[in-house]
Amino acid sequence: MNIKEVVTGFTIDVIASTSFGTDTDANGDRSNNNSFVFNGVRLFNFNPLKLAAVYSLPRSVLKSIGIRTIFPDDSLEFFVKLCRKIIQTRRRNKESQTNARKRTDLLQLMMDSFVYDKDLKATNYHRLGVDMDRDGSLNEIGQTDFERKRQTLTEDEIVAQCMIFFVAGFETTAATISHCIYQLMKNPSIQDRLYDDLCKQLDHEPIIDSKCKSNDLIEYCDTLLNKMPYLEAVIKETLRMYPPVIRIERRLGVNYYKLGGIPLVKNVLVEIPTIAVHYNPEYYPNPDRFDPERFMPHNRSKLTPYTYLPFGDGPRNCIGIRFAYQEIKMCLAQLISRYRFECTPETPDKLQFLNGSIMLNSRPFPVKVIKR
What are phi and psi of 368, to 5 degrees? Predict the structure, then answer.
């Protein structure tokens, strides 16, 4: 079977529910009639020429030739319109909704911090905030100013955040799960150890279903998410070998800095090649070998700071890092608990990656699935 196709359906369902408040059945309905699934998959079919133009031409030129983003315009517009439609529908139904009926998805959480554009202008919210010193530390301000600090989101900001969450959490998570399964197939001893650990840590009940009691589910999630270092190590090693984003970009925030003899000025774009860092034998001995032991608690002291960058690092790392880890852990735990994954004669010795993408995305590979 094509495991990437299956986990892509799973991640679409998760993002649709948690970000857009929309229930989909991506693995059950793969026809083009399911607009959410169709546009979700199509959103990541990048046009190589468009991608090259975005990364090589100035914004003024891109604007003149009608290029706004690297994504297909019609699929991007579909999700923007969907967001606005859901917001408007929930706003109309707000009076009749009770807290018990209100969805607790990302969209609703942001709507609870919503402010109308006309109110924004009337109250000068956009001009309010905490003053900062040049060195970035907070100034002391009065209580009145603090209370007036902007704490709300406009409709455009809500739509933008939903899109960021979708783009960052859909294809990247699906790729990580499929890459992890590939390595578990190629390393059956690691897969066996992970399965045994799941059974041991979860009291021989690693599988959850709709019949689980609330307290059992809470205990299960707490153990899975917080008390399983080997599962976390397997995921982290997968992300080391296959970071979803192949490079990180940052603009220099200081007036001048010299890096390795190269002078850098303020606002210059600095690109960090994630792959090169993750495969540097100085930081990770035998970097081509899949070795979760690197990230076990007893080996963490050996890791060099700022050399593990699948989600970036520092105060501006990926905002969805915790969500991604939770989603990947839950998915892998259920898959490994139910099935054993093995190579087929057609399984490649090494993953083949797609060209013309900003993400590390492998070509589909066959998997033999055996029910436990």
Answer: -95, 125
Instruction: Residue 11: count other Cβ atoms within 10 Å of its Cβ.
Output: 24
Q: HSE on the CB side for 3, CA within 13 Å? A: 30
Q: What is the pTM of this model?
A: 0.79
Q: At what angle do helices 73-92 and 3-20 cross, to 10 degrees?
A: 40
Amino acid at 60: S
- Distance between CA 184 and CA 177 in Å, rounded? 11
Two tokens, residue 2: 């094509």
Bridge partners of 247? Answer: 273
- Give every CB contact of residue 369 below 8 A, 6+ residues apart in sequence: 1, 3, 339, 340, 341
The Cα–Cα gap between 245 and 275 comes to 9
* 318 annotated as belonging to a binding site for a ligand: yes
pLDDT in tens, 359-368: 788 888 999 9
pLDDT band at 309 (very low <50, low <70, confident <90, very high): very high
Q: Work out the widest C-alpha separation in the chain, in whole angstroms.
A: 70
Do 261 and 255 meet the contact criterion of CB atoms below 8 Å apart? no
